[in-house]
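DEPOSITED CHAIN:
***
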Amino acid sequence: MLTSLARLRPAWDPACPATGELVLSTAEITCSPLLGQIETARPGRPAIETPLTWPGIAVGHLYGVGVSYPAMIRKNAAMDVTAPAFRPDPSSGRVYAARRFVRSTDVTPSGRLRLDALARYLQTAAEDDLADSGALDPAVVWLVRRCEVVVRGFPVMSDRLALRTFCSGTGPRWAERTTTVSGPAGELQASAVWACVSRETGRPVAPGEEFLRVYGESAAGNSVSARLSLPRPADGAIGRSWPLRAADFDTAGHVNNAVTWAAVEDVLAEAGWLPGCAAVEYHRAILPGCEPRLVTAPDAAGALMWLVTDGHVLAAARLNRG
């Protein structure tokens, strides 16, 4: 079942061009020599992510927003083309469609969509799908157990994104949701395992017959595990303090899953590279009063990250270099 996009479509500025992208005003521009490489871009090709040096700079205009700033070349072209293949939409069953507009509050200073903003997009699409389906059960809450994102290119500010999400597997007390996010500057796909938790007891429960009636067809009998697999940090790893804010907590009374992706963004800011694949696993609820520490370690494929407190792992992440 494909739900109509009309209900969720933002009110786009009618003055915007069809693409809504950052467009170059010169035929060719050069990257900063600090990158050790030269890239070119044609007029009409969106460009963002790697800041240019000032000599010979091209000025782009963000149509529909009315803000001009130095054009940037994105690193998407350099990302690993051997990343895991995207999962196709199911041949039958419910597929929910929505749209998002990448706003200035969702991006890094260079204009790239942040992963914590992506996590909020995914959560909103999941909640909207469940509400629209009629299978919303007020007695349970769905909490993310793990989430993996495969990146073919990062969306950028002012991109209009199309989201398609469906149930891609089930388990005794959880289900997997796959969401594809597509835009003119990049495409990502996230696979997340959500645990079905009783609001009364706080314990995992079976999703129920109505959930399976609505989502079982797209899952097509695919059984998924909720087991966590990322390694633990080394004994004695100290890391650094990673303070929480009041705004990090949601209606479940703990830190929202998107906040852990904000910690991932801190790691990426120091690493200086972008992932072709990123996975986060949630071990324990981060409750008010918790004082997590951020621990990182190099990995053969990129980097590992943990949020820890008092010897306990709260969340773990693996970032594979793109």
